[in-house]
Amino acid sequence: MDKPLHGIQEDKEIKVIFIFPDNSEKECIANVGENLLNVIRNNDIPIPCSCGGALACSTCHVVLDEETFELLEDNGKEASEDEEDLLEVASGLKDTSRLGCQIVLTPKMDGMKVSLPR
Prior knowledge:
Elements: E1 13-19, E2 25-31, H1 36-42, E3 61-64, H2 66-74, H3 81-87, E4 97-99, E5 112-115
Parallel strand pairs: 1-5
Antiparallel strand pairs: 1-2, 3-4, 3-5
């Protein structure tokens, strides 16, 4: 039996709700253990994601709901120094901004809301 990625049950699915700048929403199903960038790509969410998840740009910048942001912070998954440096140049930066490529989904994130900046 393969070990789960990051000690997480990978076969579990969670719901991720994307909120667009016009306040419309798209509900997506995502696999625990994948990163948010993959969810964005797999569901045709209109974010360019230029570097493909290499932590070399800020085009996958998203704004997390407060609960999800705090969950990451409380579990030692806060933004790295490299991520923070890239976020500094992101348009529409908020207190709960993160790069989608750096967010690994966990079961506790079920129902998370992710806002797309203008």
